[in-house]
Automatic annotation (TrEMBL):
The keyword Membrane applies. InterPro entries: OSBP_sf (IPR037239), Oxysterol-bd (IPR000648), Oxysterol-bd_CS (IPR018494). It is a peripheral membrane protein. GO terms for cellular component: cytosol; perinuclear endoplasmic reticulum; plasma membrane. It comes from the Eukaryota. Residues 536-567 are annotated as: Disordered. Residues 96-130 form a coiled coil. It is found in: Membrane. GO terms for molecular function: sterol binding. This is Oxysterol-binding protein. GO terms for biological process: lipid transport. Pfam families: Oxysterol_BP (PF01237). The gene is LOC115419357.
Length: 612
């Protein structure tokens, strides 16, 4: 009877241990012979020295005899050393051949497994094609009829009666819009069987295109010449400068590379987790490289939900919580064990040749399993050639990603573009250090393409840099890619350079709140290419917002003049977020207080204001 895989593995393990013990004893023999050679060699050298100093006399014969004995011992020891070396070499060569055969067997087994997986993938495709053409079965039918093409490929595939396990096998209408999940499980005969499970809930097919951007001429200087030095949010701008997304939707775009946080949640090491969090912070800028359009300023109380729970395992909510200064709060939670929250206030200045956008506020990421709490801030965005030339965007500044639980830190530096610099454009570098300041990882790459990270093995002080500061030289292992930008969809240059995720953000959806950005009429008109109507609608919404603000101010004045205690002039309160002090980071920010998704499930939006 052939041994099982477990017995075979145990036998090979004991054989390797025995071989290692034998080789260890041979090494000890070599060490002993080496010591003897050194000892006898030294004695022989002393005897030869004494022999040279003797006068010719009666004790000459005695000294010669001693030298002869020493030489004989040295020769015997040398022969023993040679024999021990020969035995060690022979034993190593013999076992080397056996180990090479074992390694070759492992390689062959891996190839067989890869071929098996490839075959299973083909069976998967055949099964999907077979079920795609299936019809709706009556509820009284208890079996699955028709194996399709997959039964011809592999007779070992097992199909069970649907009533045997109603939780695993459900007969439902098989339509291409329904999601299909293929599970692999082991049968009692140690062979792989394929079980097809159809989900009841369809996954929505998101749109991949929006109407092309119209080519409207606009005299830019006639609008901008009177705006130099002013706050951008206070400048009345036509939609010609915009893109058909709101700032809330742009904030939600930070989640395009949510997989980085999924991987970070699985990390056992907080330092390695820091690398993925740092890569996530860089990835949020990748969509801005060609996005020269200005997002719509959200109206006070405007919201935006991004529900990707079924496809990606997360969902997020944004709300405009303040208008002057404009501030947006964002909260996202994932089934993979992480949550993200941020409150961003944009300060912007028009400087004539360029526009500077300085995001104020912090971003926080929390992991349930490790209780690690990270926070960081955003860098400055600069839009160049506002008046003359082609618009282009640059990101510059420094980011400190801090783990408040462990004290780990990642210092990221976004190098500003310089015509005279020899560095790669849009370069980003970073170093991950522990609480004692010891470097463990180095990150490098560009914010518009990819990032790599490598483990630091040793660090040393190098030569002085251009600014007179002493540079640190890190000896690292080979760099590994940690993030890479997704390619833009076909025709993106005609669709505001939107990514695949951005194309879906303004897609109409049912069941969303009446304050959602998708319901904003001026933004919808702009997306449809009706820019003149969008400009008129934009002015109407802004005037409606100013009227609502004046009404709140009148109520605030009445509240101040009233005898009630605790009245405050600013009586506006966000609907889904509340302002709290974070004890971990020491910052004050709007935190999601709950209730939105419950209201959506109930279809009850009575508490929402009429802002559109």
């Amino acid at each position: 009877m052939p041994p099982t895989s477990g017995q075979g593995g145990g036998g090979r393990n004991s054989e390797v241990q025995s071989t290692l013990r034998t080789l260890g004893s041979k090494v000890e023999d070599l060490t002993t012979c080496n010591d003897l050679i050194v000892k006898h060699g030294s004695a022989l050298q002393r005897s030869l020295s004494e022999l040279e100093g003797l006068r010719v006399g009666g004790d000459m014969g005695e000294k010669i005899r001693q030298v002869t004995e020493r030489a004989t011992l040295f020769r015997i020891t040398s022969n023993a050393m040679i024999n021990a070396c020969r035995d060690f070499l022979s034993l190593a060569q013999n076992h080397s051949k056996r180990w090479q055969k074992a390694l070759q067997a492992e390689r062959d087994q891996r190839i067989r497994l890869e071929e098996t997986l490839e075959q299973l993938a083909k069976q998967h495709n055949h099964l999907e094609r077979a079920f795609r053409g299936a019809t709706v079965l009556p509820s009284s039918f208890s079996g699955v009829s028709g194996k399709g093409d997959a039964s011809d490929e592999d007779d070992d595939n097992e199909f069970f009666d649907a009533m045997e396990d109603p939780a695993e096998f459900i007969t439902v209408p098989a339509d291409p819009k329904y999601h299909r999940l293929v599970r692999l499980s082991c049968s009692s005969h140690n062979s792989l069987s394929v079980c097809v499970v159809l989900s009841l809930n369809p996954v929505r097919q998101r749109r991949t295109r929006i109407p092309d951007k119209p080519n409207y001429y606009l005299n830019l200087w006639s609008i901008m010449k009177n705006c130099i030095g002013k706050e951008l949010s206070k400048i009345p701008m036509p939609v010609n400068f915009n893109e058909p997304l709101s700032m809330l939707q742009r904030l939600s775009e930070d989640l395009e590379y949510y997989e980085l946080l999924d991987k970070a949640a699985k990390c056992q090491s907080s330092l390695e987790q820091m690398c993925y969090v740092a890569a996530f912070t860089v990835s949020s800028y990748s969509t801005t490289v060609h996005r020269t359009g200005k997002p719509f300023n959200p109206l006070l109380g405007e919201t935006f939900e991004l529900d990707r729970l079924r496809e990606c395992g997360y969902r997020s909510l944004c709300e405009q919580v303040s208008h002057h200064p404009p501030a947006a709060a964002h909260h996202a939670a994932s089934e993979k064990g992480w949550s993200l929250r941020q409150e961003i206030t944009l300060a912007s200045k028009f400087r004539g040749k360029y526009l500077s956008i300085m995001p104020l506020g912090s971003i926080q990421c929390l992991f349930e399993k490790s209780n690690n709490h990270y926070s960081w801030k955003k860098v400055t965005t600069t839009v160049h050639n506002i008046i003359v030339g082609k618009l282009w965007i640059d990101q510059s500044g420094e980011i400190d990603v801090v783990n408040h639980r462990t004290g780990d830190r990642c210092h990221l530096k976004f190098a500003p573009y310089s015509y005279f610099s020899r560095d790669v454009p849009r370069k980003v570098t970073g170093v991950v250090t522990d609480k004692d300041g010891k470097a463990h990882y180095v990150l490098s790459g560009t914010w518009d393409e990819k990032m790599e990270f490598s483990r630091v093995m040793q660090s040393s002080k190098g030569e002085n840099g251009t600014e007179g500061k002493q540079r640190t030289v890190y000896q690292t292992l080979k760099a590994k890619e940690i993030w890479k930008k997704n390619p833009l969809p076909e025709g993106a240059e005609n669709m505001y350079y939107f990514s695949s995720l951005a194309l879906t953000l303004n897609e109409p959806e049912e069941g969303i709140a009446p304050t959602d950005s998708r319901r904003r009429p001026d933004q919808r008109l702009m997306e449809d290419g009706r820019w003149d109507e969008a400009n008129a609608e934009k002015q109407r919404l802004e005037e409606k917002q100013r009227t609502a603000r004046r009404e709140r101010e009148r109520e605030a004045v009445k509240a101040v003049n009233s005898p009630e205690e605790g009245a405050h002039p600013d009586n506006y309160q966000a609907l889904w977020f509340e302002k709290l002090d974070d004890p971990v980071s020491g910052e004050t920010l709007h935190v999601y207080k709950g209730g939105y998704w419950e209201a959506k499930d109930q279809g009850n939006w009575d508490m929402c204001p009429d802002i559109f």
